[in-house]
Structures are given as C-alpha cells and as structure tokens.
Amino acid sequence: GQFDIIAEDLLSLLPKSSKTSLLEPEVVSALRSEWETATGRSILAAAATDGGDAAGNGDAEGCIAPLSKAMDEYLASNFSSPGVRAAHDVTASTVEDKPMLVVSTYAERIDLHNNHAGSWKGCYTISPSTGSISGSIRVCAHTFENGGNVQLRSNISPEAANVGTCSPSNDRDKLPSWAKTVTRQISLWEETDVMESLADLLESMGNTYLKSLRRVMPITRTKMKWNVMSHRVVQTLGEGHDKDKFNH
Questions:
Q1: Residue 225, SS3?
Q2: Is the full-model pTM beyond 0.85?
C-alpha cells in the first residue's frame, strides 16, 4: 500500500533528465496496474468500483451468485478487524474445455503510523463438474522501526479437497449449501495449513532463523564461557549484599 510514497521518493532521487521519461503518467499507471495485479490489490479496486464477480459461462455461471454471497459472509466474519480492508472476486473460466470457478480473496492492514503492514492473498480453483478444489495462499508481513526492516513472506499450497458438484441443473435450494461447503473448506485451510504453520514457525524461529543472525563471538573476538551455576551464585551473592546494605 505504499506505491505512491515510493513513487514520490523516486521523484526526489532521480535526476531531472530522467523524471520526465521514467515517471510519465502512462508509465506510472502501467506500473501501478502491474503491481496491484501481482499483490492482489486489484481485487480491492474492482470491489470499490463494483466490478467484481464477473459473469461466467457454461455450467459454472449459475454457481457464481450463491458462491459470491457466501464469500461476502465469510469475509465479513473473518476479516472484519479494525483497519482491515478485504474483498473477493468470483469468476468463471475454461480449462481444457472444462468449466472452472476461480475465487480470489485479498485482505490488508496498513498502519504506517505504527510501522507495520500486512496482506493476505488467496486464490482457489473449483471444478463444478467434479467438486475438486485447490488453492494457494500468500501471507506478507512487514515491520520497520528505527532503521530495522523485517519482512515475512509465506506461500502455502494446501492439499486439494472435494466440496461436491455444482451445476445450474441442481436444485436451487442446494446451491447455498454447496457454497457454504466451499467457504468452510477455505476456512479449514486457513486455520490449519496457514495459521498453525505460522504458529509453529514463530515458535521455532528463535532456534533456527534468528539463531543464524546472532553474532558468533562478541566484538572482543573472545568466546565467553557460560556457566549457569556460577551466574546463579553471583546473583545470590548480589542479592545478599543488597539486603546487608539495607540492614546497615
């Protein structure tokens, strides 16, 4: 969500001869469009202009409306924290002459005042004729303060599942139930494959990733011999010394 800020910084850094050619409105607009598509923010833009959930074709078209409604309820329930912007897009396409549904979700929370930002992008492909569903989820987190700059990027592809078939010939009363099954599967993936994996990562980070960042030896280039019992004795003696000082 910092495209405009970065563009302004580039303007201040580039020489005057390059500003007119590299940052012309057409160039900036093309870069913005490419960036929004790559990050998923284009879904937010489409939702803001009511351009999401394009009409489908073939057998998949009748499944779009109930699935879009179920996704509205899903986002409202799971991505409604203060400061979070979220949107989805449900479209139909054809892969090898087979109708497919594509569900795209995007959510972000940008808090530059408190030096952090994060985004969540999900893309799920459903075969209405077979009921198979597969997907991928990308999580990005960024924090920066006092010169520090730390980012987390995680791409997860859960194991495919089956949510049942959907076609216009189905009983209309069954379509909302089918759509709920899809959102339940998406929620299950996000809770188990994503949140639990990230929790395990954070728990083990101290002994893996962060350990590799620690200095092997102090600046003096002399290894310290750590002895827990010795430090406890020193601490105990120090506490006793403080008590004697107060007694005097």
A1: coil
A2: no
